[in-house]
Structure formats: C-alpha cells, structure tokens
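Troubleshooting log. The previous run stalled partway through. Resubmitting the same two chains, unchanged.
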Amino acid sequence: MRIALIFLLASIFGAKAAAQSPQQEPINVMPMPANVQVGSGGLAIDGAFSVELEGAKDARLDRGAARFIANISRETGIPLSAAVAVHRGGEARLSRDVQKMVKKESRETGTAIRADIVPVGIATLTVYIQQAAKPVPELGEDEGYTLDVTPSRATLTATNTLGALHGLETFLQLVQSTPAGFAAPAVHIEDKPRFPWRGLMIDVSRHFIPIDVIKRNVDAMAAVKLNVLHLHLSDDQGFRVESKEFPKLQEMGSDGNYFTQAEIRDLVEYAADRGIRIVPEFDMPGHATSWFTGYPELSSGPGPYSIARTWGVFDAAMDPTREETYKFLERFIGEMSELFPDRFFHMGGDEVNGKQWDANPKIQAFMRAHGFKNNEALQQYFTDRVQKIVARRRKLTVGWDEILVPGMSKDIVIQSWRGQASLAEAAKQGYRGLLSSGYYLDSMAPAAQYYAVEPTSGDAASLSGDEKSRILGGEACAWAEFLTPENIDSRLWPRTAAIAERFWSPAETQDAEGMYRRLASVSWRLEWLRVTHKSSYVAMLGRMAGTDDVAALRVLGDAVRPVDLGTRQRTARAAGVPATSTMPLNRLVDAAPPESEAANDFTRAVNALAAANFKDAALEAQIRLQLTSWRDNDALLQPILARSALLNELAPVSQALGSLGAAGLQALDYLDKGEKAPDAWKTEALGMIDQAKKPQADLFIVVAPAVEMLVNASIGAAPPAAQAPAKP
Amino acid sequence: MRIALIFLLASIFGAKAAAQSPQQEPINVMPMPANVQVGSGGLAIDGAFSVELEGAKDARLDRGAARFIANISRETGIPLSAAVAVHRGGEARLSRDVQKMVKKESRETGTAIRADIVPVGIATLTVYIQQAAKPVPELGEDEGYTLDVTPSRATLTATNTLGALHGLETFLQLVQSTPAGFAAPAVHIEDKPRFPWRGLMIDVSRHFIPIDVIKRNVDAMAAVKLNVLHLHLSDDQGFRVESKEFPKLQEMGSDGNYFTQAEIRDLVEYAADRGIRIVPEFDMPGHATSWFTGYPELSSGPGPYSIARTWGVFDAAMDPTREETYKFLERFIGEMSELFPDRFFHMGGDEVNGKQWDANPKIQAFMRAHGFKNNEALQQYFTDRVQKIVARRRKLTVGWDEILVPGMSKDIVIQSWRGQASLAEAAKQGYRGLLSSGYYLDSMAPAAQYYAVEPTSGDAASLSGDEKSRILGGEACAWAEFLTPENIDSRLWPRTAAIAERFWSPAETQDAEGMYRRLASVSWRLEWLRVTHKSSYVAMLGRMAGTDDVAALRVLGDAVRPVDLGTRQRTARAAGVPATSTMPLNRLVDAAPPESEAANDFTRAVNALAAANFKDAALEAQIRLQLTSWRDNDALLQPILARSALLNELAPVSQALGSLGAAGLQALDYLDKGEKAPDAWKTEALGMIDQAKKPQADLFIVVAPAVEMLVNASIGAAPPAAQAPAKP
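Second attempt completed without errors. Output:
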C-alpha cells in the first residue's frame, strides 16, 4: 500500500494567507499605472460581457478586442457570446477582421465567443481611439490610455491603438473572482509609460528557441506592457534566420534550427498586433563563427569553421578590410531590412578580441595604410561602414557599448551592458541609449534586485533634461547558454515583470513589497497565457523523480536557486567537463526557479520575527513548521535521490537543507529559553551554515542566510538583516 | 506577512511511497503486453541513442520513428542527434520523410534531434517490418510486434507498420530514470491485441472540441494502443464538419464551431500516422436538430429549428418518407465518404421518439401505404435505405443498438449501449458488434469498474467461437454535455487507459491493483504528450481560488468526485436551472477528477487496516494524518470559499469532509482504547456520514465509505469492505 499526501499546514498559515490574499488588494495591476483612483463596488463580468469599439478604425484593435474577449473567457471559464461589436460613426457595423478573429479564437480555443451586432451603447466596455497607430509600431508613439470602470460600465480611451491595447491588458488584470462572481473593481486609471523603449532581448543562437515559445512570451510581454522584443539572431553557436540571398548561413550555421522568413513575417505581425516592435540583432564583426561555416571568406582567419558548441569570446571575426565583406553585408542587410520592418537594426559589435586581425598580415597592412593605431580603430571603421549601409536602408543602428567611439554618427543607439556611467557618457555626447546592465536574467538575481536598477541613476542622475531624454529605456536580457524551450519561461518570468514595471511606472514606484504582491498575481495570470514558467518546473521535477509525486523534491527545489551563468561555467570547467550546447539541461539547476516564493516568505518571516525581538509566538510557530519540514524532508528525499542519476548530485544539498532546518529549530529553542547557545554548538552550527552557503550541484540554498540570522540571534550576536529580497 | 507551505507528511509516508514507487516494477507498460519476459540489466538511453529502420519502406514508420525520438528527447531532456537512420536493402539511406519529420520536430520543439546517416548495425534500436501497413488503417490488420531489449541493443520486429508503431510506444514506456541514467530494462515482449476494434468515441457536438485538443488525445490513444477514434460529429446541439455540398449544415448549425475539410483531412492523416482509424458518425434520423436549422425540409415537422441548447431526446427527426431526404443523404454521404476514408460509416440511429412522425399526416399515410405497423418499422425502412447508400460507397454501416431489427443487412455493425446481452444476440444473428455499455465515461466510475467490463462476458460468454469473433471489441464513450476543451482530458484520462488495456491485453489480465500501478505511470507519461488531465485540474482550481495557492482547495478536490451526467442534469432541473450548452463549466464538479489517487490510497489503507484487525500502528498513523488533514482543512478553506462565487457552494462539502475527518479520528481513538463507542456518538456519526454520502454541489465525497467503515468498526458492527476501487 502506498500513501502520499500533500496538504496545507496548520490553520494559522491558511488564515493568514487568506487574510492577505491578492484579492484583498484594491488593484493588482502590473506595471502599476501612473495614476489610480479606486472607487467602490465593481463591474460584473458574466456571459453578457461585451465590448464596443468606437472612433478610428484599426484592424489591430479589432483583433486585440477579440483576443481580449477570448482571454477573459479562458480566465473565467465563462462562454462569451455576442461579445464584440463595432460601432463607428454612429453606424453599427461588424468588421470582417473582428468576425474572422473571433471565429478563429472561438474555433481554436473552443471558447464559445461570437461576434455580433449589438445595439449601440449597451456594451459593458466601450473602447474609443482617436486614430490608428502606425502600421508598424514606432519608437515614441503615444501609448497612454484612460480607463474608467464603474459598477455599471467601463470606458477605455486612448489616442491610438497602442494605448488601447495597453488598457485592455490593464482591464484583464483587474478581472477577479469575488463573492458575487467575476468582477473588475471600480477604478479610474490614467496611465502612460515612463520610457518609450521597454525591451526584452532573447538570445536564440546559443540554444534555439522555437517560434511558438517566442510567441507565448510575446503574449507575456504584452501583458506587462513591454514593447520591444530584441532577438539576438546570430552568434558563434548558430545563425537563426533564413536568408535567401545567402542560404548557407542557415543551412550550414544552424543545425536546421532557424526561423523561416515566413515565420519571421508572421512573428512580426503577431508582435505588432500586440504593440511590440521586433528589433533584429546580427552580431558582427565578432561572435560570428556561425556565418563563417558557410562563408569562411567573410572571416579574418584561414578557416574552415564549424558551429561553436561552447561559449565565450572566440577569435573569429569578420574581415573589415575586404570590400567583399561590405558587399555581402549590403545585400544581407538589405534582405533583412525588408524582413524586419522596425526602424532599428542591431549590429551587435561586442567582444572582439582582435586575435585574427593581429595574425593576418593583410589586415595589418591595411591598418598601417589607413593609419589605424589599434584594433578599436579598425572596428570603428567597420562599424562606420555598417552604420552607413544600415542608414541607406533608412534605418538606425543599435549596438553594444563597444560601437561607441568618438566620431560615430549621432544616429546610433547604444545598448549598455557596462552600466549607467557609460550610458550617461553617451547621452552627454548626444547619443541615445538603453540600459541592459543590471538586467541580465542569467545572473539569477531576485526580482527586487532588478527592480532597484534605475536607468537614470548614478552618473545618469545628474544629466540635463535633454540628455536624460536620450535614455530611451532598457532591455532585460536572456542569454541562452543554459536556456531551452522547456525552461526559458521560468528564467524570464515572473522576474521580467518587475523590470517591465521599472520601465513603465513612475520613478517613485519603488516599494518592493508591493511589487512582490503584484508580481505573485501577474505570475499566476501569465500561466493563463500559456507561459509555462510554473508548470514546466513541476514537469521537470517529475522527469527527475520518474513520477509526478514530487512533493519532497519540490521542498528542496523551492529552497534553492541556480547559480549564475558565469559560476556555472567556471564550475564545469574546473570539473573538467566544460558546458556545451549539446549537453542535456535536465538537472535541478535547470529547473529550479531563480527566485522561490516559499524562500522569500520564509526570509520575510524571519526578518519580521527579529523585528519583533523574537517575541511573536504565532510567527515563530510558522517558522518552526517550515524549519521542521526542511529538517524532516531529507529522510524522505534521500531514497528518491538515490533512484535517479539526475538526482544523485542533490544528496549533499538535501542533507544541508536538513541541517539548516535542525539548526534553525535549535536556535529558536535557545531563544525561547532565553539562554545563550553554548559555544560548541555555535561553532558547529556556523561552520555548517558556512558550508551550506557554498554552491553545490550548481545551486545555492537561498534560505541559509535567514537560518544564519536565527543562529546568530541565539548566540547573542548582533543580528544583521537576513538577505531578503525586500524589507518585510 | 504571508506564508503558505506545502510539504510531504511524516517520513513514514515517503519511505513507503519510495519503496513501492513505479520504478520498482519490472515493467510499467500499459496495456500489459500479451507476453513479457523480464531480463536483467537495462539498455542505457543517452545522447547517442539512435534508431535504424530496416525492411519494407513506409513513410509512416519513418515519421513515427522521428516522433518517437522526439518523445524520448522530450521525456528525458536529452538532446538526441544523428538519431534516425534508414538502411534498407543493405544500403544506408536517409529518406526525405525522415529528414523532413526530424527537422520539423526539431524546429518546433527546439529539441536538438537530427537525422543522419550512421553506419549500419550500430543503432541502439533496430526496427524491422516485413511490409508497409495499408495506407489507411483497416480493421483486422496484423498489429502484433516483438520487442527485444538487451543491455547492448534493442530490436523491434513486426509484420507491418502498425505493429512497429505499437512497439515504439511500448519502448517509450519502458524508458525510465535509474541510478545509472535513463534506461530501458532488458525484456523480451511478444505482443498483439485481443480485439481488433479498440475505440474511443468523442462527442464534439454538445460541446465543440477543437482540433488541437482532438490531436493531443489521438497521441494519448496511440500511447495506450487504441486504434479507432469515433467522432460523434452531429447531434441536436451542433453540426461539426464543413460540408461543401450543403454549407448551411455548418453555417447555421454550428455557431461557427466546426472542423473544416482541410482540418479533417489533416486529422485523418495525423491519426493514420499513429495507426488510428477515424470513424465519423452522423446521427440520424433523430438527434438531428442542427441539420434542420439550415435544411428544415429534411425534418418531419413544420420547423423552423434552431440549435438545441439543452440535452435529451428531442422530437425532431428526419422525414423517412420523402425521396428528397435520400437524395440529400446520397450527396451528403458521398461527400463525407470521400472526406473520411475509413471503411466504416456510423449513422447513429439512436433514440428516435417518433413524435414528429406520429403528428405528420403524410408520414402516417406513407406508413399505412407501406404496411408499417409502428415507428420501429419506419425507422427500419430508413436505416435500410441509408445502409444501401453507404454500401454504394463501398462502406459498411455502423449504428447504435436501435438499428438492429430482423432483416437488416449482415454487413452492419452494432455499437451496443445496452449491454453484452444485446451484443450476444446480434452476434448470434450474424452481426458484428462493439461494446460501449459499461464504458460511458460520463458515469464518472472508477477505472476498476470499467476495467471489469468484459465484452465477451454475460450472454456473450456462451457464444460459439465464430459468434464470439463477431464481437470486434468496444469503445469508450465521452459524451460532451459537460465537457469543454479545458476539462475533456481529465474525463478521458487516465481512465480510458484501463479500458484500452481491457481491449488489448489477454482476458486473464484482471488484477486491478496491478492495473492501478500501471495506470499511475501511464497517467504521468500522458502529460508529456501534452495531455492536460492533471495540469488543467490545478489550473481550474486556481481560477476558482483566484490564485495558484490552491493547496487547501485541492485537499477537498482530491476527496470528491463529480456526480454522473444524469444526476447532474436531474439536480439542475430540480433546482429550476436546467443545464445548457452555454453555461459556464467552471465549478469544482467540472474540474475535480472522476477518480482521485489520494482517495483511492486512503480507501486502500483503511481496508488494509481492517484486514490487520486494526493492529497496524504505522498504517494507523498514516490514516490519522490523512484524517487530521481533512478535519483541519475546513477551517483553512472556509475563508477561501467565502471569497469566490464559484466556491460558495462548497462550504457544506468542506464542512462534511471536516466532520468525516473528525469522526474517523474519534473512531480510531475508540478502537485504540479497545472500548466500544457510545451509542449517542454512534447515532450522530452515522447520521453525519449518511448525510455526507449524499451529493452536494454535484459532488460525492468519495472517502465517506472508508470513514464509515472505521466508524462501524469502532461500534462493533461487522465491517463491510469499504467501497474501494480495487482490493488492497
């Protein structure tokens, strides 16, 4: 006989959770709108819910309304019929786009929604736009909107389609389950973004990310009002777009894993429908090995080349001295400029080590002939040539910090991985810039850390208004060394939503605790948009355990986080098994979320207990229950860990978590008794904690600092605040 | 501050679970193969895993092999490259199909699989078929295969493609996580099905089920070796296929929710690729209201008609007396015969109440003129005419019990919803038949109950060999009154896998406990095929609770099951709110699985404790923990239930579960003390249990009988075995 039970602990936990559940918040919208006035009561959402579109015509808004209805229907489980009506110029009319879109959504999702003509003025939600947005979204378009929800109806007005789409996302987040049924709280919102460039970069080169995965993440981006998807489309490890001009790029440079031009066109339209620009990046002159597999003549070395299977800075670089290189790029950029309609074209430009240039006598001769003193000068020559090619296509060049050298065209936009200082310096010189330093998701930092990164802080804080306006915003960056279609969502979400709020909401929106409350809500809602950041974690635990009974494994998974990218690579190299792009990514380090809600909750609780001078019995009881579960989990988990090669490495991690649980309990015992812990125990416990804080199996036990705080308190040491993601 | 913790209970539970985990079973294949010899050791599955195809060429097998590789890669998380090779006639060759399929799987899933030529004889798994299967799968094709797995390699041989596809599914199920990595255990399997017709009927009329949902369920069917998908395509509530001959069928009869012909062709090919036949059903002459919305002249009444929004037996029926009816059907069946290539065509034929016929003077005159004594005779005339139309298309007619009357063509196949007796009677008369009685999934019965239903039992047991061979197999039936794309998977799976085993495995395969062990394993694996029977339950709980913190709600959900379809309809009618096809299906009754593993485990434990004369301390401790969790859950859950209109109705159910937990604990206390429970308590407890056994909120508390058993034991009553899904 087999019994495995999961259940919620002791009533006190549930009562607290219930009392402070997200529903109690007046408004759980993320990013937090610029201005919110909460009214009383709410607007019921039932089977009669309908949307009326008024004002200017834009097929994108029609489709957006149909999608919005389908999303409400999916999230509430309420079939919505006769839900989208279009009345423009006083005349009831049903656009073919609405009909088509509604029918498509209805048939594909099985949601019973229907487009129909309903009498003017009876719709639950009326959407009015003054004008259509640009066919392809452009930097700086008005994205503001006003949303007014009363108990009887809702009105959404915007200058153009983009604002209306944002407003619909806000409304969707407002819908919640109440004792009287689904409803949106009465509220008046006036909202607009702080920065016009709110981006997410996804590296699809180091690991290919299929189009469906990209699309569901575009939906997630739209949900948090991000408006730029920057695709890092080529690197040493893969060339990911079909070129018809130079087909060997994808044929020899991608292992067959690339986006076709039809897929790109579809994606561009899909993103534009959601108010999102697609900025393509083709990294050059370095990070270009995959180009050289098919076209070795582009490179500065002798070749031949094959797709890189490891990562780092490689020697291979384009030859900036041959006119053929620019002829190639002229044709290639021409082709890609057609395919990607956005006004910005990203040429990369980062991390050229110059070794091939140094070793090539012809290049050295060219440099001497042109009076180039160093490789930076040669790269500047290259950048300048490429920028002119891009400009001839009436596009603007974006590049990483390295492309900014004196004399570059003021048209270029700098994406800074180096920090606010280099961004401020660029702004002073008249260049526009984007911040990505501090937003690297592979650093596996908690949401609060990214949230605290401010594009206009540091050196940028002292810029003049004009200079400051050159800081367009920023981009979260998802480098794909350890990303797969299976785990990318959990590396992107929900943390990227915190960055999205930083880019959208007023600078004063700083309270991390409030952010975490909204984040929990939006994170849950993202799964309704088919994002798999939560479900995939559980599925991957199941794979490791060989069963879906993963409760014990999850206790461990929820107490750890993956080490950052660099640490993981160094550890692998030190162990003599360097990471490669073909190795399985199916360990706990690949599955565990970068930030655990359970661990955050524990850390908050310990901080709160310390703040209460360890005199809160109810809180202590909760903390004891959590510590007990960790202490006892090890015995449950070890036999499971022994059964699977994927789990063997976790034995010491589980043991360490068990020891932390035991030490925390012991510390509380001493605190309760009011006696100082004995020195021998103190030495042992602190030694154990020091050990537990070191990464094992590429995992950090993130609850260790909070346990350390308990132990320190029990030995009378001044308790430093445990490393919490936010203040309690 | 908020803390919510989920964890696995006390170490004894985990240890037991670990000791009896699925991995410990030598072979977890479902359906259980006809012959299995387990060897020692296992075949490692790693990044070098490859498949070699030998023997006859069949593009379907090529695609099947690519799909198989992609599935292994997805389930293990191991990138597989150079994995499919084709060597036929001694020559290494890579079929275009394999290349295309592998590339498609690779690009869509992001799985790094690649087709490549590898030297002959080094593949991990060699697949040999003597001949290709028929282009469209046919009834009675050889489906057997032999699978031999040794620690060094595996060989799969089959007469044709169908057997090989089954063998690949078997192999996939053999792959498991071991301490040495992923591996398939050494095993020799000789396998073939018991019945040639192993079907699943899905009603897509009462609620439309989109093509993607159908497809993922086709994958699930293939995983458990079912070979017929019977689509109930028309009924009073919807006509679900595009007809180009009679477009008003779908235009006016479907709310826009229908399969296009392109989708059907794609589905037929998709299913054929998996060895699955698609049998279309167009129900006539009754259950046809949706036809009449566009073509009222087909009916026997005056019309007009609109799509039915409720369920039951309607009066509307085709007019069997007009030649125009047959002209219509001649064209319509001609069109559908082309679209659905299967040799069988299902004409329904059930539940004609004859009221329209009685009320139509012309029909009455026709009956008198032809000497038809009753409506059955008139229906026979209709059936006979339709059967001849179908036969002219060189197809065979299938129908429900009602079509079988003396004198019908021996070609027809009877699908029996009435039972084995009517099936046996048909077989004696020379008709072939299928059993569906006892396999109605809407009865919400446990897997063991379906498992015990034997097509050749009862009256069928005494049939001669020839007669018995006319019983072709059976079909599980999924009627869609309360199905949506969201919950259909959980109504189909895993229970249908038990029925699949009944149809495939030898008649002697009867042990329900073994079945449940295999079922747990296959159920988990089905989620890797994108079936959502487990994940959707959790998502729906989240919708009800307005958060993904659903632990307390799940404790309740895991202790209940939905009432059967008829009870639910009667309850709704009695409450004055008859169920309709447009009402939301978002309550716990729509989400809770028909059978809960947790509840089964508890019932087994109580049975085992009774068998041990209530003298197993460890077992009792486990039971107490479960009872405690139910008792305490109510206090946790009530505030959550109060927050949501979707949850209000569950307050008494949660309270009842709490009372059951408390009563069970009290009973154990009495048993432990060896004293008989007092009469007053007995009366109260049994009264409470009687109440708790009645459905509330359309839910049965399935753990009530096991608690009743504890209470009865504590008062010295003879303990009848609790209603367990299987003997402990």
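Takeaways: The first strand of chain A starts at residue 6 and ends at 8. Chain A is about 45% helix and 15% strand.
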